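Q&A log
Question type: sequence-to-structure
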Amino acid sequence: MMLLTGAAATPLAVDAQQAERLRRIGVLMPTEANDPESALRFAAFKQGLQQFGWGDDRVQIDYRWAGGNTEKARQYAVELIALDPDVIFALGNYSVAPVLQATRTVPIVFAVVPDPVGAGFVESLARPGGNATGLILIEYSVSAKWLELLKQMAPSVTRVAVMRDTAIVSGIGQFGAIQSVSPSFGVELTPVNVQDPRDIERAVTAFASAQNGGLIVTVSASAAAHRKLIIGLAARHKLPAIYHEHFYVKDGGLMSYGPSIVDQCKRAAAFVDKILKGVKPAELPVQAPTKYELVINMKTAKALGLTVPPALLTRADEVIE
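Response status: OK
Response body:
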């Protein structure tokens, strides 16, 4: 009887496994689909899912790329919700805000969000309280670190243009953190909005007309979308610049300091895994970055006539020759 029962149960278990419902994940990225960095981030997210057993045979991923365009982000957020996903992964404020406007019921996992509390995405980091949770990008204190590192790299800098997006709460917060320490470094700040490429070029060109200038590019989807323009302007006007992410430096920027966004995309898969297994976003505390990187481009430093201090080289996680 036991043997017969076991033999009968086996096909039922196999049938149940085969009949498992294909889960659906929506992904909204703020960058362009053909951006090499976009491919790295999406690949890291998929790799994270696969490590938790969510391969192509168990999940269907619908993705959209907003390219730094707010109207596209809103349109794609509505499209993704209409597909009835089990969870949505959204990267950056420009992606998270329109998704939350479109739904307060579908679970949302975010990454690369500087201030989810200030932006109204969650009630608190420990208790998100709604349908969204994920990973913060930076603490505002890191913004002050950018000015410190820039002065170490280029001590003659006394004027700094701070590129930030005033349309997001974190853009104002990051500028405020830099402003709070600028007197101690003897630096005068000039805010520059990064939403429109024409405004960027005009503002940077005007700023560079005087000597001893430098550049800080804060975290925003707009800055990432226009990074080739920004890096090109810094090179043209001989402005030492610091960025928040390594891909700016790989594209020719001088230096960067900040968390690994690729690592955040991979870690986001752990949130998705828990949600697909029944845990509610409100029960998953927002997590902080665990991996920070200092990256220096030696070729760019040489082009700017800068000698990289040995202390910075020793601290660097990556040096691009």
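Response note: The chain has a mean pLDDT of 91.
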